[in-house]
Amino acid sequence: MNENSLKCRLRQHVSVRATILWSRGNYTPHQKHRDSRMKSTEQKLLPKAPLAIVVAAVAFALFVCLPPHQGPDSYMAAINDKDAALRHAVSPKLVLVGGSNLAFGMDSQSLQRQLPVAEVVNMGLHAGFGLDYMLKEVAPHIRAGDVVVIVPEYEQFFGMSHGHTTELFQLLEVRPQAIRCLANTEQLEVLGRGLGDFLRRKFNCYEERTRICFTYLKEHHSLAAFKHFFDPTPVLVPYTRSSFNQRGDVVAHKTLPAPGFGEMKMTCAAEPDRDAIDTINSFAEAAIKQHARVFLCPPCIPRKLYLENRSQLGALYKELSCELRVPILSSFDSYVLPDQFFYDTYYHLTAGGIDYRVRRMAFDLRQELGNVPIAKSSVGDGMKNECHREIAESLRGRPDKSWEGSL
Question: CA of 342: how far to CAs of 60, 81, 104, in Å?
Fold first, then answer.
């Protein structure tokens, strides 16, 4: 075999070998270099890619594993009783949706007696949950013939509709299944922004408890000190679960002296939050498909704050009148009361303020639902009651006074 023949066979062998290697995934030098760079980049990014997931998982594990600093009688824990009451309520029912303005501002039994409904369920607990959560919470339990009255704090229309970090994490501590109602992007952003701060405060709580336990151990030389490490943070009446009655109303404060709301200021932005309006409209659309009725009712606020924020609230009323797809039961000023009828914030009512509000809301709802026999108030009949006389005097001169006869 001559030299040329050997070279030809060698080239064929190399060509066949190269084809086999190619089929096994080998690359040209240029491709190898490019693949090498890609692998190098992947090696750099790979450790960082799951970092966010790991951090989130660790934070969530800490949140779940660290014992809650809220005990079974904490104020927020009342959400479990309210949810149970809603699930077992008989239709046609009236469901009140809002924050603590309802918790500290309603007599559900008295309202029920004045309306053609089988039951009234007060779901109000805390404005910090956000209107988005509040409506998602009740939506699955709305049935044909039900009436939903949304009574949001005004701040819901000025940036609070997706909730506040602290209150949402406190909610998840006492009711983990509430996460199903916190699934939209805005709510998750609120939770994400505040997770670190919430965990920090939780650690600070246990750091303080550790200090107290070691101080007790040093003084008394007893390990019994550590049995109190996981005790819940003490709560004060009326901000307890046991301060509520079975219908979801706070009743413990009615016999306590009112500390007043001091110099608290209402936060109203220049323009209303469109998200809150869209949230209500979406809820109403779904409720109407279930043959339920939905109304918006203003919360009660002190006359002082109403006058300070009249321009913003007036603009809000115009916006809601144009954009909402649900009836507004009354003008905002119909639910303005003298300052002395508020308990400890500008949304929490005293017993006299609650009685007025129930009568006013019952009157407004009867205009929509039809008149039924009116029950007598436990406080007193008509304007003979001093509370009603004073309120009526403060409302003198308003155009919509036809309801006063129902008092």
Answer: 39, 25, 10
